[in-house]
């Protein structure tokens, strides 16, 4: 209970800081916009499609890693059946204040993305395999072969969700170099990443056939035997961090003038985030052995419990330092009071997430892909 209270307090402080900062900046921007005779406030809105790297580890209980690989795992291995979506979509916004007659600017920006997938994969072998009836082979009136009646299969039900939020509060100064228009920024970056996954697995990877004595000379029973497995896993991971940031953005005019131009845009950024990395989850497995196959009028049902592992949990929390670097390149169509931009961006956070299950497995969290924005100048 105390952990839940502390987590809620941390979330509350996070949202309070973001809300107060955004509100303060909005009030300042509004005041400047009302007193300026030129567009000093720029509002930017956009969206992005990003590829995500650094996905969670697959849940692989022992029956999913048998060697040689059972037939139900060949078409789609358990690791592939559990993979989360590699793409996210989202929105972004930015407010920039450029005081009239000053080479300084102040901005607040937010970028949000999310992804998720829900998959149900069922793989089953055909009942066409036959086994030789070696004890009766060649005996008149006795079938020389026995066909398997219990199918081999693997069934995976998997759900994955991911979200990320990045906030930037920065001050910048014009540092134009010749034909380049550029601005250097410094400020604070906040990042919040979360990931949740669940997996339910039911499998009968191998069905075997054996002959055993019936208790009378020369008499044998021909039966199948197999083991059925069930397993489930739930995991939640997160990272929250804040730290100083630097960036350098610029553009080069390709064609046009102040009334309308096309520019080539570029930018690089870096930050060091101090935060907390969390991983929490549970998993359990059960196995039943069926020595006589399925129930028939001659064979009563019987299953022996092989094992029932109680839920195994983990709850890891660690303070981490996460370096962050990124860059972008794009093209903009600029008009008085309006800018439309298209580009490609990458942002990499090194060692941000613990994506392991029973053991810590630190992975980078990277986002890269195309984006599009539109900026409107206000005031004046």
Beta-strand residue percentage: over 45%
Could you spell the SSE succession in H and E letters? HEHEEEEEEEEEEEE
With helices defined by DSSP (H or I, 4 residues minimum), what is the helix count? 2
Structural class: mainly beta
User: Which stretches are low in confidence, meaning pLDDT under 50 for 5 or more residues running?
Assistant: 1-36, 136-142, 295-299
How many structural domains? 1
First-last Cα distance: 54 Å
What would the average pLDDT be, to the nearest integer? Answer: 82
Largest sheet: 10 strands, antiparallel, barrel
Number of strands: 13
Multimeric state: single chain
Could you tell me the radius of gyration in angstroms?
A: 31 Å
Helix content: 10-25%
Please state the overall shape, judged from the principal axes of the Cα atoms. Answer: elongated
The strand line-up of the biggest sheet is 1-2-3-6-7-9-10-11-12-13
Q: How would you describe what is shown here?
A:
It is a single chain. With 380 residues, the protein is mainly β. It has one domain (2-378). It is 10% helix and 63% strand. It contains two helices and 13 strands. The chain has helices at 2-35, 78-81, and strands at residues 41-53, 87-97, 104-124, 130-132, 145-147, 153-174, 181-204, 207-213, 220-257, 260-290, 304-335, 338-354, 362-378. The strands form two sheets. Strands 1-2-3-6-7-9-10-11-12-13 form a ten-stranded antiparallel β-barrel. It has a two-stranded antiparallel sheet with strand order 4-5. Strand 6 (153-174) and strand 7 form a beta hairpin. The longest helix has 34 residues, at 2-35. The two termini are 54 Å apart. The model is unreliable at 1-36, 136-142 and 295-299 (pLDDT under 50).
């Amino acid at each position: 209970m105390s952990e839940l209270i502390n987590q809620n307090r941390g979330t509350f402080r996070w949202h309070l800081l973001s809300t107060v900062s955004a509100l303060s900046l909005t009030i300042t921007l509004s005041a400047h916009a009302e007193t300026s005779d030129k567009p000093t406030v720029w509002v930017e809105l956009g969206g992005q499609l990003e590829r995500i790297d650094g996905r969670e580890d697959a849940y692989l209980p022992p029956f999913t890693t048998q060697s040689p690989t059972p037939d139900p795992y060949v078409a789609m291995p358990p690791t592939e059946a559990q993979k989360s979506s590699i793409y996210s979509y989202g929105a972004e916004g930015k407010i920039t204040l450029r005081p009239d007659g000053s080479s300084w600017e102040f901005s607040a920006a937010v970028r949000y993305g999310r992804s998720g997938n829900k998959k149900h994969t069922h793989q089953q072998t055909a009942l066409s395999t036959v086994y030789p009836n070696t004890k009766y082979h060649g005996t008149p009136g006795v079938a020389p072969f026995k066909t398997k009646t219990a199918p081999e299969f693997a069934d995976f039900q998997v759900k994955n969700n991911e979200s990320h939020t990045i906030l930037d509060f920065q001050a910048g100064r014009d540092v134009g170099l010749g034909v380049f228009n550029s601005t250097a920024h410094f400020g604070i970056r906040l990042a919040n990443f979360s990931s949740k996954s669940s997996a339910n697995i039911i499998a009968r990877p191998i069905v075997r056939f054996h002959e055993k004595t019936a208790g009378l000379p020369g008499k044998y029973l021909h039966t199948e035997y197999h083991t059925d497995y069930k397993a489930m896993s739930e995991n939640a991971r997160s990272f929250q961090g804040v730290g100083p940031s630097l960036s350098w953005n610029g553009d080069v005019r390709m064609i046009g003038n102040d009334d309308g131009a096309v520019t080539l845009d570029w930018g690089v950024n870096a930050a060091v985030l101090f935060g907390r990395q969390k991983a929490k989850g549970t998993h359990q497995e059960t196995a039943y052995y069926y020595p006589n196959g399925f129930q028939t009028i001659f064979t009563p049902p019987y299953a022996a419990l092989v094992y029932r592992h109680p839920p195994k949990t983990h709850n890891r929390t660690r303070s981490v330092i996460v370096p962050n670097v990124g860059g972008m390149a794009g093209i903009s169509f600029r008009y008085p009071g309006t800018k439309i931009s298209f580009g490609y961006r990458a942002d990499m956070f090194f060692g941000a997430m613990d994506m392991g299950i029973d053991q810590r497995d630190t992975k980078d969290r990277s986002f890269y892909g195309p984006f599009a924005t539109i900026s409107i100048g206000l005031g004046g």
